[in-house]
Amino acid sequence: MLYLKTLIIVVQLLSALGVIGLVLLQHGKGADMGAAFGSGASGSLFGATGSANFLSRTTAVLAAVFFVTTLALTYLGAYKSRPSAGVLGEAVTAPVAASAASVPAGVSTPAAPAAASKPGQDVPK
């Protein structure tokens, strides 16, 4: 389970970095960072509008991968494993409090300690 979480975290980190890089490379209205790398050039590998189309589709795919890995990590983080059966094959349970186990059913227990010993009782209102 630990290897699966680690793998999903690595995929999520790579997809997040990819989305950041692709968003910075895309050609905006003000010809921001994308123009410096030639994404708006008409003689590029993808043609005049092909690079914008390719970058936007790749960004969408990486964003989808990021969301899927986020949901997977949320699911794996909320997963609670069952208690181990242990060496003897019995499920491990929490021990019962000694005071509750030693008192018979018909016997009353002594009264609670004085009210002054409760926290917050000695604070003036």
UniProtKB/TrEMBL annotation:
Its transmembrane ranges are 54-76
- Tell me which GO cellular component terms the UniProt record holds: plasma membrane
Query: Which residue ranges are recorded for the region named Disordered?
Result: 106-125
- Keyword ATP-binding among UniProt keywords: no
Q: Which GO terms describe its biological process?
A: intracellular protein transmembrane transport; protein secretion; protein transport by the Sec complex
The way this protein sits in the membrane is described as: Multi-pass membrane protein
Q: Which InterPro entries match?
A: SecG
The record ties this protein, via PANTHER family, to: PROTEIN-EXPORT MEMBRANE PROTEIN SECG
User: How is this protein named in the record?
Assistant: Protein-export membrane protein SecG
Q: Which organism is it from?
A: Paraburkholderia megapolitana
